[in-house]
């Protein structure tokens, strides 16, 4: 919650420098921005959380912390249980009750070491503002809590009980999360960051062949590779280009363009590996990494089991082609994109490629990561919420491409 202190005016800053400004009043916070941020996080959207400088008493300009939508959001602050609108959004409300002397000692340590205050100023502020504010505003919110933990960190029994309660709730909710995602009705219009190949006779003909259950594995591989090549060629249009002059074999100068970026590929195993041959056909020197995300059969949740990414990943001019055969609910794509973001790949440097996608998955991914472009060859309007296969589906794309242990 400390990120949402409001900017002080120049006049207010001078008051704060004299230790006469009350930072422990609810009026010191930008509740409008706080509420909007929490709402967007709960909707699975990306938000920019401001960085507050306690020495200048203003937000750091042009800097923020990027936080991505998540299944679990932990919100902390002394006024965390104060605002009714914030309270309405909370599934579990906890009040940590600690001895006031310990609180004062911790405040002195924090304000001197991290916020540039002197001890005299800290004590002065504590007597004038902090203690009265705690008595008038903070302590009364204890009644809003579902759980009160006395003695703070020392109370391991209460913390253990709270932890077990949260784990039980998460387990129960995860059982339905992915199925609920599949049942969400997607708007009729696709997000602006989604690019679908033109529905030509060639595209429709190849989709007819690879959907046909009678198609041999040899033919399935051939046409899947052709289709992957077209998807990747379309994705190349989204890369930055620059002008370049070259000399032809007849010693004539001509003006052209060249890609102004390196391209790395990351396939979501196992079905995403079906696009690797197409990528190497189009970009001969592309380095390919792999992410293994498997769905837990008991609850439909994706789990990351393996991750090996290209060594060029961190270079500023590298774009990543993230590859998966089919996008249903978008759960695996969400996790894979978060893995890339955790490895410092800029969101707008990720292009997600696939053969077939459902509107639900496209809207889910686009809502969370609007800067990620998605290139697909076909959008199927129907997602079977029981099997999570697209209908008319491709079945298990990876098995049809790579074969199974029963195949000769």
Automatic annotation (TrEMBL):
Limits of the Phosphoribosyltransferase domain: 199-404
Enzymatic class: transferase
Domain of life the protein comes from: Eukaryota
Keywords of the record: ATP-binding, Kinase, Nucleotide-binding, Transferase
UniProt key word Glycosyltransferase: no
GO molecular function, one term: ATP binding
CDD domains referenced in this protein's UniProt entry, alphabetically: UMPK
SUPFAM superfamilies tied to this protein: P-loop containing nucleoside triphosphate hydrolases, PRTase-like
Record pathway: Pyrimidine metabolism; UMP biosynthesis via salvage pathway; UMP from uridine: step 1/1
Ranges of residues in domain Phosphoribulokinase/uridine kinase: 1-157
One BP annotation, GO: pyrimidine-containing compound salvage
InterPro entries in the cross-refs: P-loop_NTPase, PRK/URK, PRTase-like, PRTase_dom, Uridine_kinase-like
Pfam families found in the cross-reference section: PRK, UPRTase
Family indicated by similarity: Belongs to the uridine kinase family.
Protein name, UniProt field: uridine/cytidine kinase
Native source species: Lunasporangiospora selenospora
Phylogenetic lineage: Eukaryota, Fungi, Fungi incertae sedis, Mucoromycota, Mortierellomycotina
Protein's gene: UCKL1
């Amino acid at each position: 919650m400390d990120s949402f202190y409001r900017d002080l005016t120049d006049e207010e800053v001078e008051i704060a420098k004299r230790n006469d400004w009350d930072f422990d009043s609810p009026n010191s916070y930008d509740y409008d921005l706080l509420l909007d941020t929490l709402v967007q996080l709960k909707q699975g959207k990306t938000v920019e959380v401001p960085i507050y400088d306690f020495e200048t008493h203003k937000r750091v300009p042009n800097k923020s912390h990027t936080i991505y939508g998540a299944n679990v959001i932990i919100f902390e602050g002394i006024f965390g249980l104060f605002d009714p609108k914030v309270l309405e959004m909370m599934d579990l409300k906890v009040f940590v009750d600690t001895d006031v002397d310990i609180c004062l000692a911790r405040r002195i340590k924090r304000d001197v070491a991290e916020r540039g205050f002197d001890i005299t100023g800290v004590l002065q502020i504590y007597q004038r503002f902090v203690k009265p504010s705690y008595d008038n505003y903070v302590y009364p919110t204890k009644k809003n809590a579902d759980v009160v933990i006395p003695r703070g960190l020392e109370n391991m029994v209460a913390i253990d009980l709270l932890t077990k309660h949260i784990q039980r709730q998460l387990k129960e909710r995860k059982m339905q999360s992915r199925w609920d995602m599949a049942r969400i009705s997607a708007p009729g219009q696709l997000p602006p960051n989604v690019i679908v190949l033109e529905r030509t006779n060639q595209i429709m003909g190849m989709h007819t062949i690879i959907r046909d259950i009678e198609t041999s594995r040899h033919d399935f591989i051939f046409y899947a590779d052709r289709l992957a090549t077209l998807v990747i060629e379309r994705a190349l249009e989204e890369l930055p280009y620059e002008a370049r002059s070259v000399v032809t074999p007849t010693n004539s100068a001509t003006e052209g363009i060249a890609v102004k970026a390196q391209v790395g590929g990351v396939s979501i195993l196992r079905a995403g590996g079906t696009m690797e041959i197409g990528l190497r056909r189009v970009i001969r020197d592309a380095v390919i990494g792999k992410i293994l995300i498997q769905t837990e059969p008991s609850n439909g949740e994706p789990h990351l089991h393996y991750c090996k990414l290209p060594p060029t990943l961190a270079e500023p001019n590298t774009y990543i082609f993230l590859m998966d055969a089919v996008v249903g609910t978008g759960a695996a794509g969400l996790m894979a994109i978060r893995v890339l973001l955790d490895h410092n790949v800029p969101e707008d440097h990720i292009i997600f490629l696939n053969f077939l996608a459902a509107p639900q998955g496209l809207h889910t991914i686009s809502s969370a990561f609007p800067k990620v472009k998605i290139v697909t060859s076909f959008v199927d309007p129907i997602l079977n919420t029981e099997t999570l296969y697209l209908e008319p589906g491709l079945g298990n794309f990876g098995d049809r491409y790579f074969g199974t242990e029963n195949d000769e």
